[in-house]
Amino acid sequence: MSMLSIVERHLARTGIPATRFGLDAANDRSLVRTLRGGRELRPDLERRVRAFIAASDPHRVVRDPNLRLARALAERAHAPIALVDSLSREWLSPTFLGHRHRIRFEAGAAAAARMCAGWEEHAFMLIGHIVVDLGIAGWSDGIVTVEALTVVLA
Fold this sequence. Notes:
Elements (H helix, E strand, L loop, with lengths): L2 H12 L3 H9 L4 H6 L6 H14 L9 H10 L6 E11 L4 E10 L2 H8 L12 E12 L2 E10 L2
C-alpha cells in the first residue's frame, strides 16, 4: 500500500484536516498536498509518519502484551514459578511504538535458569507485538527481575 493511500485512509477515518495532519506528523503543513502531487518521502520521514499514524489511529487497538509476555516467560521454566509483580509503560521512538516491561518472578535457581536459557534464539509469540530486547535486570533472594521491550507490529 502506498504512503499516500495510508495517509488518505487515516484522514478519512479520523476526519483530521490534511494541513493539521501534516503539521502534527511531520511539521509540514503541505505534506498531504505534495504526497497527492506525487512526492516520495525519505525513509526516515516515512517511518515518522507511519509511527504517528499508528500512535494516533483511534481504530487501532494496541493491547499491552505485559501479562502475555510474563506467561510466556514462566512457561519456559517448566517448573513452578510465581509472578510477583509486573508493570508496563508505553514507549515511542521516532519510528516505532511499543511497551517497556519490568516483570518480577519468584523462582528457584534451576527454574530461573531454564526460563532464561536460549532467549536469543526464542521467538516469543505475542499477538501484535515482537520482543526486541529482553534481559535479566536483577536477581536476589529468589526474585528474578526481567526487563523487556516489545514493539507493535505494523
